[in-house]
Amino acid sequence: MDSKQLLEGDLIRVERKNLTGINYWHWGVYIGDGNVIHFSGPPDSNISLKEKHLAEVRQVTIKQFLGDDTEFQSVPFLTELSRAEVVERAKSQVGRPFRDSSYELPYNNCEHFARWCHGKAESKQVQNAVLWAAIGSVIALGAGILFGASVSYAKRNTERDHENI
């Protein structure tokens, strides 16, 4: 997407890779004139456990927001708030930690901030990760039950075969 197509208040995201090599989306709010407001660590940092306390809402150029990336996505504008209200909400947080709290991936991250500017602080990528972890746990539990049942069945058949000899 070309930044010239952006409108004030647009939610934008860029794909990044964390320190463990896992891809994630970094979120911000486009405020016009080539600027973005986002919740992040210091410039040129990837928030680590040691740097969480340094995270704050920052206003940067779109180029700074993108970092080494050139591609980004604009997420559909789904809010009852006007674009001006979204921008005002974003600007009201600049220079301080979002919700006056440190960066916490599950409940206070860049997506929470960007979506809060649109009316509701939430992180769909965290919600999806939790959902997939739950599905994986159910599958693992089911596989464990099936394995246990098959071992038990095989053991009973072996014992029965020994009784018949």
Question: Would you summarize the structure shown here?
Answer:
The chain has 165 residues and is an alpha+beta fold. The protein contains four helices and five strands; from the N terminus they run ββββαβααα. A five-stranded antiparallel beta sheet has the order 4-3-2-1-5.
Characterization of this structure:
The chain has 165 residues and is α+β, with helices and mostly antiparallel strands. It folds into two domains: 3-122, Alpha-Beta Complex (endopeptidase fold (from Nostoc punctiforme)); 124-165. The protein contains four helices and five strands; from the N terminus they run ββββαβααα. The protein has helices at 62-66, 83-92, 110-117, 124-163; strands at 11-17, 23-32, 35-40, 56-61, 73-75. Strands 4-3-2-1-5 form a five-stranded antiparallel β-sheet. Helix 2 (83-92) crosses helix 3.
